[in-house]
Amino acid sequence: MEFKLEAHRIVSISLGKIYNSRVQRGGIKLHKNLLVSLVLRSARQVYLSDPCPGLYLAGPTGTPAVPPPQQPGEPVAGPPSGWGEPPPPAGRAAWPEPEPQPQRPVVCHTPGAGSSEPLSSGAGDALRGEETDTAAAAWSRVERPRAAASGGGSDTCPEGPRAVRRPCGCPPTREEQPVEDGSPAPTAPCPRKRGAAGVGGGRAGCPAPGSTPLKKPRRNSEEQPSTTDEDTDEEMETGNVANLISIFGSSFSGLLRKSPAGGREEEEAEKSGPEAAEPGQICCDKPVLRDMSPWSTAIVAF
Amino acid sequence: MPSHRMPSEADIISTVEFNHTGELLATGDKGGRVVIFQREPESKNAPHSQGEYDVYSTFQSHEPEFDYLKSLEIEEKINKIKWLPQQNAAHSLLSTNDKTIKLWKITERDKRPEGYNLKDEEGKLKDLSTVTSLQVPVLKPMDLMVEVSPRRIFANGHTYHINSISVNSDCETYMSADDLRINLWHLAITDRSFNIVDIKPANMEDLTEVITASEFHPHHCNLFVYSSSKGSLRLCDMRAAALCDKHSKLFEEPEDPSNRSFFSEIISSVSDVKFSHSGRYMLTRDYLTVKVWDLNMEARPIETYQVHDYLRSKLCSLYESDCIFDKFECAWNGSDSVIMTGAYNNFFRMFDRNTKRDVTLEASRESSKPRAVLKPRRVCVGGKRRRDDISVDSLDFTKKILHTAWHPAENIIAIAATNNLYIFQDKVNSDMH
């Protein structure tokens, strides 16, 4: 039981660190956040695997009622999938920055060109973290960089306000909602990744604003008959933490990889992106996001 | 020399490095400044001030930048300074922040030409009608002026934050490492670099480790090592392949299962790696220990020294305070017989590899009057407490010694304690033993 308390505390602390890292000067430190995510994963495992009756959470990984501890032979689950290029500071943008050609041994740099590599679709959660609540505020805040960024690379998406972008890499619309392919948008359509992102969507889908999500979040689709997290309210507000963890679990596919079914599905969805130089995106549904507290929304955004 | 301005975050020293002779000592700080100290030649006239370091030059190396495309501020903090081997009268060093490496040339001017025909003393053109004869300008001595100029700027090579730079023994190339990649540069070419290590996974969700430090071998220009956040070291040979993703040797110690905790992974992350001067060994620092590795043995380090094992039971609160992420450096002495690293409470530790004795010393104004002898300190962990012991709970974790350097030949050490630089000299045992 003490382990659970400790694990809970560590989860809270870790989430706070991840959240704060988005506002620190100099950008997100990849090393530190990787370490924090490893701690988070360990704490979460302990929290979930402690066989206390009634504390079972809605299976984010589709695992049975008492999830077994991770087998030593299992591949190391990666960190949260928000491991795209370090996302900009909080509220600014949900979009990771572009990625230089990594595979060539010789990288030519012309002055200033280094930053204007093709805009990739970026990694998982940074995309999903389109905090529409804060996007409106961020929209006005990033107006200024737009002028400066107009000289971006030719095959990048027009560098509109970075506050909001569709997961497929297309520039945002005025409503700052992801739109389906073909919908009129005030900015030029993005040449990349429309197919993978728009059609059918799956994990990478861009649900139309306000419409029913094309695919339910992972935890529901794999849900086994189980107790919900709401009735496990202990004195430590596990309900809230359970929410966080279940969202957490569905968001970070690296952690999900422990579950064979979930992992495979995730991988397939990611591989569906043809031009994916970057890892594929995993969209979490807006309605789900909106139901969460701002705290957990921020974590998912990361 | 301690900073005389009001202490501010910009004054926090972020790197310390002696040059190859030990005559010069460079420090970088969070404000992007570099301060170079020079050792005064020992003179018979003033024997009490022999060999002390005075400020030689100060310049602004890096400025804060804003990357508009990524909406990211780039800190001006100097992460590392590395001296180039001296090839002429000038000195050169490389300094780097998170994104950009700069080559600085430091020259002295102690003479100036006088007696120009066409210009007067102030440099104004003379009235030609007053010039009746020609003279040859002569060089006259002047007050020493140290001039620093940026000779090369190596920009746009890194997406992630640069953590190390290392000059090759060939004196022509150097490498820079960020979290996921290592690039090889030629000192004369700024518009391109070779990527020699790339551990970025195709799917970033698979990321499990990052590069934390890297260094060229001191003698073999084809060999370099890089350390990872998982506690492993990889020795790579540039002659084996253009892309050194496959290591030649992997140095890794299996984890002790009895020490497993939530924070095992964090404390095993290597924060610094240094080749010995001989090139035979490597020194690594992780959160609680320093380890000596033999290049010929990959299975485990040959020596492990506990820096502050009493912190092992406090990892959770150190995690909360972010102290667990502190990156301590380590250093060899000139003869590779003693290793040194910093700790908290402005303590630093030295381990003698031969005698197996270790000592804890403190860098503070109170205990370091000029020419005073440093008193060994002790942290008590319960049990008998001696008079001057410090208890673990009263350690000041805001006073951390992350950066230390050892003179290449003599027993002189430079210790950076937040915004103060301490230089200690062992007069009694000046020669290496």
From TrEMBL, chain A:
Residues 228-237 have a biased composition (Acidic residues). Pfam families: IER. Residues 59-281 are annotated as: Disordered. Residues 240-253 have a biased composition (Polar residues). One of its GO terms (molecular function) is identical protein binding. Residues 73-84 have a biased composition (Low complexity). GO terms for biological process: cellular response to heat; positive regulation of cellular response to heat; positive regulation of transcription by RNA polymerase II; regulation of cell population proliferation. This is Immediate early response gene 5 protein. It comes from Microtus ochrogaster (Prairie vole). The gene is Ier5.
From TrEMBL, chain B:
Keywords: Repeat, WD repeat. The keyword Repeat applies. InterPro entries: PP2A_PR55, PP2A_PR55_CS, WD40/YVTN_repeat-like_dom_sf, WD40_repeat_dom_sf, WD40_rpt. SMART domains: WD40. Belongs to the phosphatase 2A regulatory subunit B family. This is Serine/threonine-protein phosphatase 2A 55 kDa regulatory subunit B. It comes from Microtus ochrogaster (Prairie vole). The lineage of its organism: Eukaryota, Metazoa, Chordata, Craniata, Vertebrata. The gene is Ppp2r2c.
